[in-house]
Amino acid sequence: MKLSVVEVVGRQRERSERGLEAILAQRTAQPFEVIIIDLAPDERPLRSAEDPRVRVVPHAEIREYPDALAAGAREAEGEFVAFLEDHCHAQPGWAMALEQDCRPHVTLVNYAFEESKPSTYLSRAFLVAQYGRWMRPTRAGPVAVPACTNVCYRRETLLNYTQERPLEAWFALEYLLHRRIRRDGGLMWQSEGAVVAHEDWLSLQEGMQANGILKRYSAG
């Protein structure tokens, strides 16, 4: 099972580098690839991007995050595609756990989440609000409602659904994709060992604004 890891980066290069270095520190039984969708190719090159496992794909024209995810899925060559936000850091053993969880009958693997450092009461509150149902310790097994954006898919499944609508449209409202997978009998699996540390808002105003925009976007 070959794994493709997709990270979308922009102008916050140092933050993205921390995420990339956490991915490259992973150990797996089989080689894996890392696809960087670079929305700011005019910025300085990322540290560690010269690693032979890394492929940087410039996309200065992309303005929407779902479009960047779709671009990453198309570039991926692995049987499974693991998406990670650049502020969501893979913890030791994450990729190895994905290898174990990405079994032939599994369509999607959901990560286990924990807080990133530094953390405050406010950032932990945002983490609980956004990822509370999947925070570690988790119990491995089927999951009816997985997370969005930070999740691992069987690539063939994603491509099959493009016959109905573009990947960009599915990623724009990802929970509708999950509902469709569940309706079609696909097995979505909650991982116990694929742990990621998620950076959350340290500012109440910025966090409320971002979440408010997301809710209005979903309602539209």
Describe the structure.
The chain has 220 residues and is α/β, with parallel strands linked by helices. It has one domain (3-119, 134-199): Spore Coat Polysaccharide Biosynthesis Protein SpsA, Chain A (Alpha-Beta Complex), CATH 3.90.550. 36% of the residues lie in helices and 25% in strands. The chain is built from eight helices and nine strands. The protein has helices at residues 13-24, 65-75, 94-101, 121-131, 155-160, 167-172, 174-183, 204-219, and strands at 3-9, 32-38, 54-58, 80-84, 88-90, 106-115, 141-142, 151-154, 187-198. Strands 1, 2, 3, 4, 5, 6, 7, 8 and 9 form a nine-stranded mixed sheet that branches. The protein is globular and about 45 Å long. It starts with a strand and ends with a helix. The model has no long low-confidence stretch (mean pLDDT 90).
